[in-house]
Every structure is written in structure tokens, then in C-alpha cells.
Amino acid sequence: MATALGLRASLLHQPMERLDLRRFLSSDPPHIGHAQMPIRLGYGPEGPTTPRRVPRAVLDAQVPHR
User: Fold this and answer.
1) Which residue in 23, 43, 49, 53 is a FRET match for 31, CA 20 to 30 A apart?
2) Where are the domains of the chain?
3) Could you give the C-alpha distances from 14 to 2, 22, 34, in angstroms and in order?
4) How many whole angstroms separate alpha carbon 41 and alpha carbon 12?
């Protein structure tokens, strides 16, 4: 949905690698659990497409016999 609206996303894994920043992201008492990965959403230039393999390279289309 975000992409359809022209938004871009980037995952910010570096704060999760530092214990002090990880605690900062999870320190609010109303929140339960732990922060897993901050995500930044916003408008920006379109990035390059990611390389994709053709489906037949990763899928087995043979139906097993019963």
C-alpha cells in the first residue's frame, strides 16, 4: 500500500545492534515487547530494482502423485 502511494521504506538495523539504543526504543512503559526493527517511511527518489530470478528457477511445478 505504501508503495502504491509513492512512499519509500528503509530498514534501520544499526540502532538494534547497540544495546543502549535498543533500550531507548523499548523503554516506554505502555509498550510491550521489544523493538525489532525501526522502519523509515517517506517520499523520495525511486531506487534501483532488486534482481529477481525467474519463477521456474526457484519453484518446483511438478505435482506429486498420490
Assistant:
1) 43
2) 7-46
3) 23, 10, 15
4) 11
Q: List, in sequence order, every beta strand (DSSP E) within the chain.
A: 7-11, 39-43
Q: DSSP label at 46?
A: -
Residues present in the chain in total: 66
pTM of the model: 0.45
- How far is residue 21's CA from residue 17's CA, in Å, rounded to a whole number? 8
Whole-angstrom Cα distance, residue 24 to residue 35? 9
22-44 pLDDT tens trace:
667 665 666 666 667 788 899 98
What the block records as the C-alpha cell of 26 is 523499548
